[in-house]
DNA sequence: TATTGTTATACTCTATAACTATA
DNA sequence: TATAGTTATAGAGTATAACAATA
């Protein structure tokens, strides 16, 4: 019987493949993983302060400044003044930004459907449960609270 | 029934958790993901030219120079002249480098055992098969040859 | 002429610290 | 006094292009 470590190897390989695939599709448009992550969060949360984005992304405020600069220069997001707090700026998606997110969602849906396309309903259900169990265990390891 | 995209979300979350966990353990020693990857490959392949490492890592030769510089400065690898080709240098692991790889292997084995610790033999076997199927499908997407 | 590794240059992600404007 | 965002500075990963030494 193989050692459990091969499960880790499989998961790690999948992780690398997923990230490589995502990078391949995004980079032509000037979108990198970090910028896409911010775009994704801003889309989910609606117009957000950079402070809020920094917190959501677990990243320094300075880092958010740079990412928003890049996304703004490429037309994916827009900065606007906060209506009540003149220190803050609100980051929201432009039409182009919203469209990019929509296309990425479609791409992910297409990938997801492809990778499990020959699983029957029962197998897919078990696979989901297994992944959830693994995720929970990984969270335990990261956050031993 | 949920959309298949949630499988992708689960896999992506696992990918991020694995990488976060690996980063957390390595960085104190001055090892980053990129340096660790090179260390891993050099360990598996034995003494290698930087050219060979660049090819194995799918990265530019210039990048390898920087990674080897950093690993050499921290005592994980050693450069030595190639016995027959005076243009090339051979990169090999020091005692400290070998020990670091050994410790990482133990860490990965521990994590792997933990994440599937409540799977019985049958479930684990199915899970492996599912991961292999997903990996194969992802390779198809990446490499439509 | 081709290849190995390096210097030169540039872009990106990331962080901390100091600073400005506002709360 | 504290907070939001920026400038300043720094380290790391990555790339291409030009160059030296060697094949």
Automatic annotation (TrEMBL), chains A, B:
Keyword annotations of the record: DNA-binding, Transcription, Transcription regulation
Pfam family, one: MarR
Residue stretches making up the HTH marR-type domain: 4-143
Key word Transmembrane present: no
Signal peptide, first to last residue: none
Protein name per UniProt: MarR family transcriptional regulator
């Amino acid at each position: 019987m193989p050692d459990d470590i091969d499960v880790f190897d499989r998961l790690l390989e999948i992780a690398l493949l997923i990230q490589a695939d995502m990078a391949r599709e995004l980079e032509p448009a000037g979108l990198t993983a970090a910028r896409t992550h911010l775009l994704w969060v801003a889309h989910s949360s609606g117009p957000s302060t950079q402070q809020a984005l920094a917190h959501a992304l677990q990243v320094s405020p300075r880092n958010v400044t740079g990412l928003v600069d890049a996304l703004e220069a490429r037309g994916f997001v827009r900065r606007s003044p906060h209506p009540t707090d003149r220190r803050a700026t609100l980051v929201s998606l432009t039409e182009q930004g919203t469209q990019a997110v929509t296309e990425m969602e479609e791409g992910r849906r297409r990938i997801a459907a492809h990778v499990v396309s020959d699983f029957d309903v029962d197998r897919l259900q078990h696979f989901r449960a297994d992944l959830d169990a693994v995720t929970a265990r990984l969270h335990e390891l990261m956050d031993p609270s």
